[in-house]
Structure formats: C-alpha cells, structure tokens
Amino acid sequence: MPRRPSSTPPTDHAQTDHSSSQSTPPWTPPLDEAQCEPWYDGDDAVVALREYNSDQEYDLPLHIKSFRLGGSRSCEVSVPGRGLSAVHCLLERRGSRFLVHDQHSTHGTIHDGRRIQVADLQPGDRFTAVPVTFLVLNNEIRIHRPLLVELLGTDFAPWSPDRLVIEAAKGLGNLLLTGEAGCEHERLARAIHAMSLLRNRPLIECSHIPAERPSQVGLIKRASRSTFVLSLTSRTPPIEPTFASMLFSPSYHVRVIVIAPSLAVSRRVLPAQNVDQMQHVWIRPIAARARELPAIFDRLLSEGDAPIRLANLTEANRARLLSHAWRGNWEDVRMAANRLTSIARIPDWEELDWRERAIALGIAKSTLYDWYKLLQLTKPLFAKSM
User: Fold this and answer.
1) Nearest CA to 381 among 317, 324, 294?
2) Which listed residue, of 119, 221, 226, 365, carries a Cα 20 to 30 Å from 36's Cα?
3) Number of domains comprising the chain
C-alpha cells in the first residue's frame, strides 16, 4: 500500500528535499484561530443595479441566472436612448459569482479602469457600459443607502451617497466624519459598518478610552477585524500614543471611524499622521441644505403618514421654515415634521386657544408657544385650500 503523507513536521531523521527553495518550508505550520477567522462568511448576492448617482434602479431577481443589459427594450435591464449598444453586455450568475460579459458593444464595457470582455462583479463595484455607469447592490446596500442620501444629500461633491457606498462596501480604510452636533454621524457610522464586509462582526462604539493598559488591550482585541467608532468632542483629551499605535496598527485589522466636530479637534486628539491618512467626510448642517429642505420635509411627513406636505402651509410659514437656522439639525427638523403631522390631524386647529392646542398635542402650553415663536409661525398655519 502507498504510504499516506504525514501531517506532522519532519524530524531530524526525515529525508528533506534540498533542491526545493530555502524560502519554502517542507511543512507548513497551522495558523492560529484568529488568523483563520473569515472577514465575512455570509450571503453576498447581487440583487440589483443602480445607475451611479441616480435614482434609477434595476432589480436582478435571484432566481434568474442571466440578464441582458443594453439599449434595446427587449433587454432585462433596458436603458434606451442613452448611447448603449442594443445588447451591450450580459450579466450572469455562475454559482456564487456574478459576471459581466461585454457583447462586442460599440463603446465597450469598463471595470476597474480597464476595457474588459469579462469581469467578476462584487457588491459595491462600479462598472460602465459606456456611457452609463452602474453601481452593484446587495441587500445591505439597498437597505442602508437611503440613509446616506438623507444625511449627505445628492448634490454635495465630492462625497455623493454612492461614493460613500463604494467606500463602505469595498474599502477597509479609516474614515473621519465631521460636522455639527445633531447631524447623526453615529447613524452614518453604523450604516457604513452594516454595508461593509465586517458587518457580521460586533460594532465597537467608544467615546472614552480606559486608562488601564489591560482594558485598552481588551478593547482593541474586541475591535479586531471589525469597525471601531471613536466619538470625540472639543473636550476630549489627547489619546495616549501607545493606544493610538495599537488602534491604527495593521496587525489588529481594525477599521476606525472617527466622529469629531472638526478636523482640528481630531488632529488635537489623535496623531496627525493617522488623521491625515483618513478619508474625510464632512456632513453638512441642515441650514446649508436649503435647496434640499423641501424634499427633506416632505420625506419626513410622508414617513409619518401625514395628511399634508410642505406645500400645504401658507406661503409665509413655508418661507419661514425654509429660512430657519435649524441649530439642532435633524432633531429639530424631525420634531417640526412630527408636530406638523399631529397638528394637521386635529380638527379646527386655528379655532382652538393655546391651552386647548397644547392639550391636543400632549405638550405644555409654554412649549408649544415657544416653538411657534422660535419658528416665527403665524396664523393661519395652513393654506385655506387644504
């Protein structure tokens, strides 16, 4: 019988092959458990395409194995009148892989900066059936992308929601999120983690670094191969260099997302060289999004199943809402949308006195009066044609 290969390392008596390279050991030792641990081991199926930085989305049902993409209306992904070949490329499910095959198109198919005949696509990839660019989506991206649109807006270069989708889904680089309080940086950080390949690992959120070294080491180990969200304020003291060195060490495989009021604060608390290597995303305050505010209000009113939209307010009240400073950012805007929703459901609102209004809303009379005064709302609140 032929001898079975040994699974134990060779002893001094074992015959070795001196002709093999000295850099390749005759026996490969096992990796420890931490090194064997997968980054992500769940389903990562492609479920849709979205035109890059656009609202146009195309379903790719899982039970269908191939899709023609092109300008012809007979294609499963039909993009007519945009300069694509009739059948520009073929999208194919092959086991766990998702492939794009160019179909001898006139202008070609581009992936990763190169014209290709065939390429593997992963969620978060971008490819171009020239001249139309598409973003590849899985379920996680589909779920969380609307939050990115809400917090970033759609007209803010260079950080469009789809650029951040790619960074979240494909990148493992560190991110710095800055902006005013109330801009919901924490929600954005959680969405980034949920779209990443680290999403099955526990998210670690921290605003205070323990002083004891064992506790610091334990914190880093918990964050290993996961996302570590570090929230800073203008009062956060500088972080100890040894902890910062561990946090940003490649050996721990920690993706760091820092939330700070400003770049200056982050550079004061953390080593400047680490901060300068991060992708920096500034989240604009609500007051800087005047052109988007009507759509933001209407989306919030719709989410609350309100019987009104912003256009139902009088012109004067609508103008005051759109010009308000919104110093509490999303908290203030959501509260306004919620109160307007409740007010619109109360019969004969304008005929009630302040006490009756406050009782109907379930808040103190002074709270309601001060809110009206802060927003400079006037009677009547809604247009008569409502």
Assistant:
1) 317
2) 119
3) 3
Q: How far is CA 49 from the centre of its chain?
A: 17
What the block records as the tokens of 204 is 């670690």
Instruction: Based on the fold, state whether residues 91 and 221 are members of the same structural domain.
Output: no
pTM of the model: 0.84
pLDDT in tens, 247-274: 999 989 999 999 999 999 999 999 999 9
Asked if 377 and 349 count as a contact pair (C-beta separation under 8 A), the reply is no
User: What's the CA gap between 133 and 129, in Å, rounded?
Assistant: 6
Q: Are residues 184 and 102 in the same domain?
A: no
Residue 3 has what DSSP assignment? P
204-206 vs 227-231, strand pairing mode: parallel
Please, where are the H alpha helices in 159-290?
A: 161-170, 185-195, 213-223, 241-247, 263-269, 272-276
pLDDT in tens, 332-374: 999 999 999 999 999 999 999 999 999 999 999 999 999 999 9
The number of angstroms, rounded, from the C-alpha of 319 to the middle of its chain's C-alpha atoms is 32
